[in-house]
Structure formats: structure tokens, C-alpha cells
Amino acid sequence: MEFEEFDAFNASAGHPPVAPPAPESLTSNIRLQYLVDNTPVIIYSSVPTGDFKMTFVSGNAQRVLGYRPEDMVADPNFWFNHIHPDDIPAIFSSLAGVFVDGQRTYEYRFRASDGRYVWMHDTLRLIRDAHGNPLEVIGSLTDITDRKMMEEALKKKGEEQQGLIRKLQEAHDQLLQSEKMASIGQLAAGIAHEINNPIGFVNSNMTTLGKYIETLFQTVDGYEQAFACRAPDPDLEARVRQLRQQSDLDFLNEDAPALVRESIDGLKRVKDIVQALKDFSHVGESDWQIADLHHGLDSTLHIVDNEIRYKARVVKEYHPALPQIRCLASQLNQVFLSLLMNAAQAIREKGGIRIRTGHQAGWVWIEITDTGCGIPPENMNRIFEPFFTTKPVGSGAGLGLSMSYSIVKKHGGRIDVASEVGKGTRFTVRLPVPAEDGA
């Protein structure tokens, strides 16, 4: 390198021309310049003041960032003006620490000459003179864009894996819930079968007993009519009147048949509940089949009757010609059970639950509306999340609506919710109708 070239190099780096160095010094400078210009690290220096104006930038800046070193040195705000706006506040807030700790390290995005942002690792170090006064700040910039991209890819991969783990956990929990419901259904069917036998003969016996009581009182009436036709006998008549009063025969004649009728009605209710258990469980159901949703709603209402009857009046507005759909009826009954139970639990004291059905354009819909407390807006986006619940600990696992969402989705449908705090909530389940029935 000639002396004129060396002067040009100093000028490009922001240094004034100097006297020609000795030959051995020149060789060292050439070697140093070669090493600096061919490393991936950009070496720079700046003034030790608040604006951090660059005073020197190594020649490899043009290869890494596309800028000429002399242009970077000439612009007093070059460094700050090229840092990504989102990264500037974190740097500014701690940059003064260089004068306290003597060193700072940052990672930020820096705008290259082609307009793209590259990630840079920047290490700043404060140089002091012999008296401890700040002399200059030297720094090293390293392009870490590839590393950042790898970190981002790993982060994304980790998030995807976490998502898969969550989905696997959700599937596992739903499988457990399905197995639990299947076990409950099996138990319900077994209990229903066992209860049906005694209900059958008790119901038969009560019917026969009613006929016996009717015959008995007809016989008593016959005796009284025959007794009235006999010659008067004051003593016998007195005894008969006394017996009638003691046995309260008139009351028995009125109340006994009523008791039998009420008992038969009670047995019918038990029989209906048992039948509802069988219909609700659909034990052994594994194939999709055409089913009547109204029948499923009614059987589910029987199951939750004790939960609802003391809190809400149920109003049914069924479409008179609702198409049947292809489904797993027991799973849809689980959806109806969850929605009805939630509706009942949302009502604090007294209220109402309305069940409406309808169909339109190849879809059937089931709408369950309550007059309960409503769902706060901040919870609306989370109600279908597994394990999310606002109920007290031990009152629910938070799987009901999550399971309902999955079941409805598996049936090719969707479930919508609208709610207003203090006024109530409406869930609408929409399910596709088989093509031949969708008209």
C-alpha cells in the first residue's frame, strides 16, 4: 500500500491524513486492516457523549450492511436512525449504563442499505484516559440474523409441540369423559332393566288392587241397600251407623281409589324416567343412525327434571316437522344435558328455560335460552376451553362445554352462544340434515 492509499484509508474511516509511518509500522497496519476488513464483525468507535457519533467504522461494514464506512461516519445520527423503532426504547433506557459499568451488550434490528432489517449483536465498551475520563466508546457489531431465525423456528416448533401436547391432553380427557359417560350409560341401562321388572308387577298389582277396591265398595253398597229393605231394627241400625263413623267409610270410598290412581301415576313416572335413562344412554351405540332430536331432548329433560323443576319453568317450542338427522344420539344427548344443566345452574332462584327447534336450508337448529346470570364478556372466548370453569372448586371439571363443542363439530355442525350479564344466555346448536332430507 502506497502512502497516498493509506491516507485515503484514514480519510474514509473518518481520520485526518497523518505522516507516513515507518516501514515496519506500515506492514503492521496493513495486516491489521486486512484482518479487520475480512472478519464478520464490524468494528467501530464513537464519541463518549449522548449522541454516540461514529468516528470510525471498519471497511467490512459495506459487505455486511451495504453502507460505505465514510457515509456512516459522516452522518452524526447514523446509528440511531437505522435501529428498528421498536428496539430503540430498550437501548435508550440503559445506554447511560455504559458510563457506569464500562460495558453494555444489546441485540437489536438494524436497517441495511437494501431496506431489510438484520439482527445485530452489539457490544459497547468505554475507553478512559489515564485520568479516568471517558475517551471513546468502541464497539463490535455481529450479524446474528441466522441465529435469530433459528431461535424463532425453534420457538415456533416448541409452540407447535405444546399445542399438540394440549390437543393430545384434551383428546385424552375427552376419551376419559366419553368412557365415563359410556360407563354411566351402561349402569343406567342395567338399573333400568332391573327396575323395570318390579315396576311391571307392582303396576299390575296396583291396577288389580284398584279393581278389588272398586268391587269391595260396590259390595258394601249392595249390603247397605239390602239392609235398608229389611224391617226396622233400631239397635242394628245404631251399630251400623257407629261402624260407618268409626271406619269413616264415606272417606275411604272416596280416597282409596284416588290413592290407587296416584300410585299408578307415580309408577308411570318412574317407568318414564327408566325409559328416559335407556333412551339417553343408547348403550352399545357405535354406528351413526337416523334419530329424532325431539325424542332426545325429551329423554334428557326427564333426566334433569329434578335439577330444573324447582328453579325454572321449561317452555318447549318444537318445530312440528323437524327433520331427523344422521347422528350418534347418545352423544348429542350429552350436549343437551350439558346445556340444560348449565342453564339451570345459571338461574339463581326462579327463572325460565326455553327450548326451540327449527330447520332452514339443510340445517336443523336447537336453541336453549335461560334467564340466568349471563356470561361476562371476558369469559366468552374461553367457555369452550377444556377445564375452564367459573364454578367453585369441586362443582365442575370444566369439560361439559368443551365436550359439547367437540361432539357438535364431529357431527359437522357448530355451536353458537350469545349472552348478556344479568339477563341470560342463549346456546344454539346447528346440525346438518342428510341431503335427501334437507329440502
Number of strands: 12
Q: End-to-end distance, in Å?
A: 90 Å
Q: What is the assembly state of the chains in this entry?
A: single chain
Q: What name does the CATH topology of the largest domain carry? A: Heat Shock Protein 90
Can you tell me about this structure?
This protein is α+β, with helices and mostly antiparallel strands. It has 3 domains: 39-148, Beta-Lactamase; 160-284, no CATH class; 285-439, Histidine kinase-like ATPase, C-terminal domain (Heat Shock Protein 90, 2-Layer Sandwich). Helix content is 51%, strand content 20%. The chain is built from 14 helices and 12 strands. It has helices at 3-12, 23-37, 61-64, 69-74, 78-82, 88-92, 98-101, 145-228, 234-247, 249-281, 293-303, 305-308, 329-346, 400-410; strands at residues 41-46, 54-57, 103-111, 117-128, 134-143, 289-291, 312-317, 325-327, 351-360, 363-370, 414-420, 424-432. The strands form 3 sheets. Strands 2-1-5-4-3 form a 5-stranded antiparallel sheet. It has a 5-stranded mixed sheet with strand order 7-9-10-12-11, covered by helices on one side. α10 (249-281) packs across α11, α11 (293-303) crosses α13 (329-346) and α13 runs antiparallel to α14 (400-410). It starts with a helix and ends in a 7-residue tail after the last strand. Mean pLDDT is 80; it is low at 1-7 and 392-398.
Question: What secondary-structure arrangement, pairings included, does this model have?
Answer:
Blueprint: H1 3-12, H2 23-37, E1 41-46, E2 54-57, H3 61-64, H4 69-74, H5 78-82, H6 88-92, H7 98-101, E3 103-111, E4 117-128, E5 134-143, H8 145-228, H9 234-247, H10 249-281, E6 289-291, H11 293-303, H12 305-308, E7 312-317, E8 325-327, H13 329-346, E9 351-360, E10 363-370, H14 400-410, E11 414-420, E12 424-432
Helix pairs in contact: 8-10, 10-11, 11-13, 13-14
